[in-house]
Amino acid sequence: MGDKYPNLNKSKKNSVRLAILLAVFSSLGPFTIDTYLPAFPQMMRYFGTTASMIQVSLTACMIGMSIGMLVMGSISDIHGRRKPLLISMIIYLVSSFACVFAPNIEVLIALRFIQGFAASAGVVISRAIVSDLYSGIELTKFFSLLMMFTNLAPLLAPLAGSAVLAFSLWTGVFLFLGVLGILLTSLTAWRLTETLPAEKRVPNNVREFFSNFTILMKDRTFLGYTLMQGFIFVGVFAYISGSPFVYQKIYGISPQLYSLLFSLNGISLILGSQFVKKMAGKIAEQQIVLIGLAVAFISGTAVMLIVFIQGPLYVLVIALFMFVGSTGIISSASFTLAMERQGHIAGSASALLGVSPTLLGAIFGPLVGIAGENSAMPFGSIIFCSCLVAVLIYFVLIKNAIKAKSIKSQIHS
């Protein structure tokens, strides 16, 4: 493997370098979403629109990312990982610069859709590359390492956005993303080599495209992990879309302090993924997922209660810190469990795992603003309900599917 793919091998010497390289691409999603969050109030004034319409631009990006994941994941199974990624990065940088010149909110929404579609390739293909190279416990450990670096993005993105806003208008944020697109295009062209050999690729036909997704959706365990991750991230996206208004409008903090508080959750995500890395091989991945779900449910309940009684800011920050950290635990451990036995359709599997959180977040995220920018009740309710549904999915789909497989194997033995 090392000789065949000199830049992508499994040696310990290069594992950190590989994780950083792939994390740059995987971080494109969080950067595309999080960097312009501190600019929401400014953009609302600039375009003369409402908070809900500004949140629609976020929704459009998420929908574009969701559709893009399905398309780009399958295309990467057909044509390999490198070529689709390169084309997508070129589209990303062009759409980012185009956002700067958006004449109205409607055009910006359309451009954000394109930008999200292109960004999806970085997220889904980087994870497919990991599955190409690793399996079993090694996949869990490497993916946790990858997530440790990837989770720096939510910490750095709002800080970068706030720093840009300190000396420019909201357009500076999209200039920054355009420059990031240039960097990623260069890395794809000169640093990334192919990891999916031609003989392992799937046929290029429409029937095979839909067949792959049918196979995955019939796997109850895979479906369970996909939906569980999706609904737990509904709460995350509710936090992402609602926190600028909850923190700045209700609690009256500055954009700079908001960026700092938001960035704390990057630390929480890192701690969550590192917990998985430390526990991998010591306790079963199923137990790690259960720990993450328990933390999510407790902290999600706390968030709902705090916003309902209008509790102090520091208590809300602590509860959200724990909630976001739990998602780092759940996503890292469940990725390995979901990707087991997916083999040559890893791109399609990675796409479904990625599209579920993004699509569900896009659907439920705007509900955060349903009561107006001065109410946090939908914010707390959605976070709590997302945790509750995720727990139910685990016990109804995943645990029952595992029991059924265990009984079947005992009968055959």
UniProtKB/TrEMBL annotation:
<feature type="transmembrane region" description="Helical">
    <location>
        <begin position="377"/>
        <end position="398"/>
    </location>
</feature>
<feature type="transmembrane region" description="Helical">
    <location>
        <begin position="315"/>
        <end position="339"/>
    </location>
</feature>
<feature type="transmembrane region" description="Helical">
    <location>
        <begin position="109"/>
        <end position="130"/>
    </location>
</feature>
<feature type="domain" description="Major facilitator superfamily (MFS) profile">
    <location>
        <begin position="18"/>
        <end position="403"/>
    </location>
</feature>
<keyword id="KW-0472">Membrane</keyword>
<feature type="transmembrane region" description="Helical">
    <location>
        <begin position="142"/>
        <end position="161"/>
    </location>
</feature>
<dbReference type="InterPro" id="IPR011701">
    <property type="entry name" value="MFS"/>
</dbReference>
<keyword id="KW-1003">Cell membrane</keyword>
<dbReference type="GO" id="GO:1990961">
    <property type="term" value="P:xenobiotic detoxification by transmembrane export across the plasma membrane"/>
</dbReference>
<keyword id="KW-0813">Transport</keyword>
<dbReference type="InterPro" id="IPR020846">
    <property type="entry name" value="MFS_dom"/>
</dbReference>
<feature type="transmembrane region" description="Helical">
    <location>
        <begin position="16"/>
        <end position="33"/>
    </location>
</feature>
<feature type="transmembrane region" description="Helical">
    <location>
        <begin position="222"/>
        <end position="242"/>
    </location>
</feature>
<keyword id="KW-0812">Transmembrane</keyword>
<feature type="transmembrane region" description="Helical">
    <location>
        <begin position="351"/>
        <end position="371"/>
    </location>
</feature>
<dbReference type="InterPro" id="IPR004812">
    <property type="entry name" value="Efflux_drug-R_Bcr/CmlA"/>
</dbReference>
<feature type="transmembrane region" description="Helical">
    <location>
        <begin position="53"/>
        <end position="73"/>
    </location>
</feature>
<feature type="transmembrane region" description="Helical">
    <location>
        <begin position="257"/>
        <end position="276"/>
    </location>
</feature>
<comment type="similarity">
    <text>Belongs to the major facilitator superfamily. Bcr/CmlA family.</text>
</comment>
<dbReference type="Pfam" id="PF07690">
    <property type="entry name" value="MFS_1"/>
</dbReference>
<protein>
    <recommendedName>
        <fullName>Bcr/CflA family efflux transporter</fullName>
    </recommendedName>
</protein>
<dbReference type="GO" id="GO:0005886">
    <property type="term" value="C:plasma membrane"/>
</dbReference>
<dbReference type="InterPro" id="IPR036259">
    <property type="entry name" value="MFS_trans_sf"/>
</dbReference>
<dbReference type="GO" id="GO:0042910">
    <property type="term" value="F:xenobiotic transmembrane transporter activity"/>
</dbReference>
<feature type="transmembrane region" description="Helical">
    <location>
        <begin position="288"/>
        <end position="309"/>
    </location>
</feature>
<feature type="transmembrane region" description="Helical">
    <location>
        <begin position="85"/>
        <end position="103"/>
    </location>
</feature>
<keyword id="KW-1133">Transmembrane helix</keyword>
<feature type="transmembrane region" description="Helical">
    <location>
        <begin position="167"/>
        <end position="190"/>
    </location>
</feature>
